Amino acid sequence: MAKIHKSFYVVILFLSLSLIAAEFDADYFEPPCQTDDDCEPAWNEYFNCKCVDFKCKWIMIPKPEGPKIPKIPM
Fold first, then answer.
1. Has residue 7 got a pLDDT over 80?
2. Residue 48: inside a domain, yes or no?
3. Higher-pLDDT residue of 15, 21
4. Which of 58, 64, 56, 68 is nearest to 27 (CA)?
5. Does the residue 44 lie in any domain?
6. Is 0.90 topped by the overall pTM?
7. Spatial separation of the C-alpha atoms in residues 56 and 3, rounded to whole Å
8. Contact 40/33 with Cβ under 8 angstroms?
9. Is-contact 42 56, C-beta < 8 A?
10. pLDDT at residue 29 above 70?
11. Across residues 37-53, what is the average pLDDT?
12. Are 32 and 54 in contact (CB under 8 A)?
């Protein structure tokens, strides 16, 4: 019975530590900003980095509409 309680407390300890670490890392992945110029330039061609709610967020660039290919009836 004591081993069950001990393992339960260990699980709670590790979960709480990981949640605290995730909260502190949020500023690393979404750094604070005032304008779009404060965000680092995007290195991915499909995304752009914009300032949204004072945090740098990756925004997907919409795909351009390509030429319409007519369907051939069979």
1. yes
2. yes
3. 15
4. 56
5. yes
6. no
7. 45
8. no
9. no
10. no
11. 86
12. yes
